[in-house]
Amino acid sequence: MALASSIAGKLRDAIALHGEAVIAVSGGSTPKRLFEKLSNEILDWSRVTVTLVDERWVPDSDERSNARLVESLLLQRGAADADFVPLYVEAATPEAGIGEVRTRLAALKQPFDVVVLGMGPDGHTASFFPGGDRLGEALDTSNTALVLPMRAPGAGEPRITFTLPVLLKARALYLHIQGEDKREVLDQAEQANSQLPIASVLRDAPQLDIYWCP
Ligand SMILES: O=C1O[C@H](COP(=O)(O)O)[C@@H](O)[C@H](O)[C@H]1O
Fold first, then answer.
1. What secondary structure does DSSP assign to the chain, as a single string?
2. Which residues form a coiled coil (predicted)?
3. Would the CB of 30 count as within 6 Å of ligand 1?
4. In contact, 170 and 113? CB cutoff 8 Å
């Protein structure tokens, strides 16, 4: 509830200042309750554009689709008026579809007003997976690419992900995690020289608000 309320405040501020707001959210299982709370927040959702920080390369008919989660839990009630820009297009691979995705994303106002990151038990965030084939590029803060394909042993299907520099530029950056196991992973990531992908966020983010619940 606290995170939903904080995000809603940032969206209202952006709408008041710029007439519109852009938010990029994570998928997975953690944001379910957040999405339900956020969709009940009173604000001018018709001025909000929602996108994802990363996506599994599956259509939204697939249970694993992050877009499906957003459509079914966030883009409801007042938030049904928001625009949604998904990261998946009908193509066999992210490499084949990425040109179309980049064209779609060109219309998105940057920097994003709000980015909400999650974290997996392996320390991945967005689709920055340990052992990812393009992890170095994705975490390179001088990379100018908006999105990259990603494959990794622990990722399941191929992925598409915004790069770290795009996410770090957000006006408000949140990390949303749940459970003791993830708290321990975060503690490890806070150690000097941690190689966990989430450690790059902790090191390089100009500002980061961490929300944790048991
Ligand atoms: O695969 C993904 O996993 C992470 C973490 O998900 P969770 O189920 O452990 O909450 C998520 O942040 C990311 O967006 C998603 O694609």
1. -HHHHHHHHHHHHHHHHHS-EEEEE--SSTTHHHHHHHHTS-S-GGGEEEEESEEESS-TTSTT-HHHHIIIIISSGGGGGSEEE-S--SSSSHHHHHHHHHHHHTTS-SS-SEEEE---TTS-BTTB-TT-TTHHHHH-TT---SEEEE--GGGSS-EEEE-HHHHHT-SEEEEEEESHHHHHHHHHHTSTT--SHHHHHHHH-S--EEEEE-
2. none
3. yes
4. yes
CB 51 within 8 A of CB 87: yes
- Compute mean pLDDT per 10 residues along the chain, 214 residues long, and list them: 98 98 98 98 98 98 98 98 98 98 96 98 98 98 98 97 98 98 98 97 98 96
- In CATH, what number does 2-213 get? 3.40.50.1360
26 CB within 6 A, ligand 1? yes
- The finding on whether 28 has its CB within 6 A of some atom of ligand 1 is yes
178 lines ligand 1 (CB under 6 A): no
pTM of the predicted model as reported, rounded to 2 decimal places = 0.98
Indicate if ligand 1 lies below 6 Å from the C-beta of 118: yes
